[in-house]
Design a protein that fits this description.
By secondary structure, the protein is of the alpha+beta class. It has two domains: about 70 residues, Arc Repressor Mutant, subunit A; about 30 residues. About 65% of the residues lie in helices and about 15% in strands. The chain has five helices and three strands. A three-stranded antiparallel beta sheet has the order 1-3-2. The longest helix is centred in the C-terminal third of the chain and has 29 residues. The radius of gyration is 19 Å and the shape is elongated. The N and C termini lie far apart (about 55 Å). The relative contact order is 0.14.
């Protein structure tokens, strides 16, 4: 079952994993070194990111290398942009009001 990218982003640990992987592909062990939780807990989080298509995991010899895939985040970006435009309009109106009153 493919998960929604929103579900993946809901957890702070998964967001931190995405941040780690944004620099370069990493092995599961290398990723786990960045966290105070167990390696199995990191593997569980990586599985969710993989099911959300945000991470691909490829076996290379004895290691599993994780690579970030940003395409699913486009849905998130489009949604956020709608609200960015909304708030920019509100801030522009506030700016106009303050200039008129000041």
């Amino acid at each position: 079952m493919r998960r929604d990218p929103w579900q993946a982003l809901a957890d702070p640990t998964r967001r931190q994993i995405i941040e780690v992987l944004s620099k370069s592909p990493q092995t599961v062990n290398t990723i786990a070194e960045n966290f105070a939780i167990s390696r199995p807990a990191i593997s569980k989080q990586l599985k969710i990111l993989e099911k959300s298509a945000l991470v691909t995991i490829e076996k290379q010899g004895r290691e599993r290398v994780c690579t970030l895939t940003l395409a699913p985040l486009q849905e998130v970006q489009i949604w956020v942009q709608q609200y960015e435009a909304f708030w920019l309009k509100k801030l522009d109106k506030l700016d106009d009001y303050l200039k008129k009153e000041g």
